[in-house]
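tool_call: predict_structure(chain=1)
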Amino acid sequence: MAESDEKGAFQADIPANAVEAALRSVEKVSRKAGEPGAEEEAEVAVEVEGGAPAADAGALAGEVESLKAQLELSTAKGRDTLEKLKEEHERRLRAAADLDNYKKRAAREREEVQRFGIERLVKDLLPVLDNLDRALAAAAADDPLADGVRLVRASLEQALAKHGVTGFSALGQKFDPAVHEALMQVPTGEAPPGTVVLEHARGFKLNDRLVRPAMVGVAVEPPPAP
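tool_result:
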């Protein structure tokens, strides 16, 4: 019998202080479990721990929406700014084109003034030249005053030529309404119809611009003999 007791027995050498610590821990847990509100604190702890990720996800979604709104606002402002820049660029291009056109027009007008500014003066002087021509045509060949009139006429024509005034004759030419002014028709068989056979006054140009057409008589077919 003693032999069997020795075979079924289990012996272990456990320190006494370890056993005491284990007992104190069990008692502490038992007391906390029996206290009121212990389960609620545990549930609240679990709920807080479980709700933290949900709160983080909501905050992240709100931040994403805020960033989207800011991006859309920035894009809209960027489009508005781009449109304003395009309008300003086009306005400046139009202003530059207008200024360039104005400069060209001013240059043309300045050139016109330089070349044709004396046109009215020339028109006033041409009748004087015509009268000198008529005086020479009416003067006798041996008239001593005719030489002086010729000198005056030559001086006046030279002065006009310095400013681009040139005269031209139409005698013997085909009538051209662009540079000739017909004062009369001359029935004649000595020249083809439409030919200038008489010239009452020469024509004049100022720098290739017609100042006065030539005053002429134009040949026409003579009437049939009776």
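agent: Residues 1-12, 37-52 have pLDDT under 50 and may be disordered. Proceeding to next step.
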